[in-house]
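User: Hey, my collaborator sent me this sequence without any context and asked if I could get a structure. I don't really work with proteins. Can you help?
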Amino acid sequence: MVTTHIQEHLIFQTNYINTEGESIMKERLISIITATAMTLSAMPFTVSAETTETTDNTAISIDNSTIKAYGECGANTKWTLDSNGKLTISGTGNIAKTDELIELSSEIKEIVIENENTQIEYYAFQNFPSLESVKLPNSIWIDTYAFEGCTSLTDVEIPKNVSNLSTSAFYNTPWLENLKKENDLVIINDMVIDGTNCKGDIEIPNGVTMICGDAFYMSEITSVELPNTIKSIGAGAFNSCQNLKEFTIPDTLEYVPNVMFASCISLEKVVLPNSIIKIGYMSFAGCSKLESIKLPDNLMILDPYAFSECTSLKVVNIPKNTTNIYQFAFYNCSSLEEVIVESIDTIIFDSNATISSIKVESDEKNAYTGKISGYKGSTAEKYANAYGITFTEIVTTSEKGDANCDGNVNMADAVLIMQS
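Assistant: No problem. I've predicted the 3D structure and written it out in structure-token form, which is a compact way to encode the shape of the chain:
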């Protein structure tokens, strides 16, 4: 019998501890149990409760449990499943979808993630039919669809400190659906978990610190007032809100998240604070009524597709602090008349689709019918020449004595004048 076989080793090891005294450590006991278990060829095994005392009065306790299966779900994460359907995950790093856990999914009733600084990857526990409860640690990162379709899930313990959480992680679960029945705006631990049932003008209560990814996806809201307590907004938070007309981002944020306003076809006005240094992937893609937007002075990065297919956008002024404009940033902006680039060395991704008036299918020139304005010898001029785009030079009217046109008169100007 498996239990008897392991108990014999426990008795042997206990006697060994009693005779040899303090030279024997707890780790040796555990290693013998582990080695014995490995010889059982993946059979379920039971460890009976045993408590022994070493000569230094240190108690070694082994809990009653039946380990049904175990394995790895990431480079530094491991799992064990017991006979009660409890899946325990330990370690830090990524928790990935695995074939072994999918095969056992009908037996898993409870998931406990023990360690902080872990990330549950996309679809990791999707469609686990028997899963009833989930306990999450602080500093957890939960990707989209992680628990989607878990039709028995009714209890989720959300910690106060969450690195990232997407509402779609819990789509089609009784837990989320029950919360939405209680309140259109679902708030847990100062986080907006869901607002997809909200309509019209809404106000987020003071004290809320996070709006989760996809929180208002396809809702019927027309405007949102955010408190200055907001610290983060997740990707796609307002994606496809087709009635949303205006939005002001608080100065507590440093970036516009990926897909934040994608396909908000009624969005006409957006106010971006100077705290914003990055506009993410597809942030404003498909905002077909957005005619103008003032980019913040401190903006550094425009990610791919940031303003793609903004078909009403007419003029864009790229601030002098912007270092990178990535591919497709202004793709298929059919009404775009002018792009003004204030810096001489902003890196513009080398593709005719980075700034275009049409859907580009090849490397042909003249994909953009508007003009680019910039300084002579700048990267903007080089980009315009490379793709047959009209270039207009920005001529600076400098203060008397401002030889280098930097807006200041100082020793640098004197040196430049002497050299000339």
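In plain terms: Confidence is low (pLDDT under 50) at residues 1-62. You can pass these tokens on to your collaborator as they are.
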